[in-house]
Amino acid sequence: MQSAPAYPLQMRGLWHPGQGQEGSVADTSREELDKVLGAYGRLQDRFDKAGGLREVLSLYEGLKSELAKVSEAEIEGLTAEIKELVESLLEIDYQLRKVQNLKLLFDEPAAAGNGAAKED
Questions:
Q1: I need a labelling partner for 76 at 20 to 30 A (CA). Which of 3, 46, 51, 94 fits?
Q2: In sequence order, what are the residues at sequence separation of 6 or more whose Cβ sits closer than 8 angstroms to the Cβ of residue 38?
Q3: DSSP character at residue 2
Q4: E strands, the chain, where?
Q5: Is 17 in contact with 50 (CB distance < 8 Å)?
Q6: Are the CB atoms for 45 and 24 separated by under 8 Å?
């Protein structure tokens, strides 16, 4: 997509610098319109990589519509379930570590006993 010209109205032949009375309402209006069209062109340029401003606005509307289908309560409920699951998994992890530590504790005397028997 081409970038907007610095003076869109000039490029389209609709307005020429110095046209009309100096400082007239028409000149001021043309300048304001030129600024607005220039800003709009620059805005379009920013969104070229995403397919242009229309595509970005279309994506925004689609996303807004899809998000409206999901309630805040639904998100909060799922978040609570995930937190509960994580807490359960942490409890299981804690219990497995305790079992591992007990196993190591009970295996130490047996290993020490085997080592003492070899020395005799």
A1: 94
A2: 4, 5, 6, 7, 8
A3: P
A4: none
A5: no
A6: no
Cβ-proximal residues to 17 (8 Å cutoff; 6+ apart), any chain: 10
pLDDT per position as a tens digit, 65-93: 999 999 999 999 999 999 999 999 999 99
Task: Let me know: does 4 contact 44? Beta carbons within 8 Å.
Answer: yes
Q: In whole angstroms, what is the distance from residue 18 CA to residue 29 CA?
A: 14
- CA 120/CA 51 separation, integer angstroms: 84
Number of neighbours of residue 30 by Cβ within 10 angstroms: 20
* CA–CA separation, 94 and 86 (whole Å): 12
pLDDT in tens, 31-54: 899 999 999 889 888 989 889 888
Question: Quick check: helix, strand or coil at residue 117?
Answer: helix
Q: In the structure encoding, which two tokens stand for residue 112, read together?
A: 């020490």
CA dist 37 and 12 (Å) reads 12
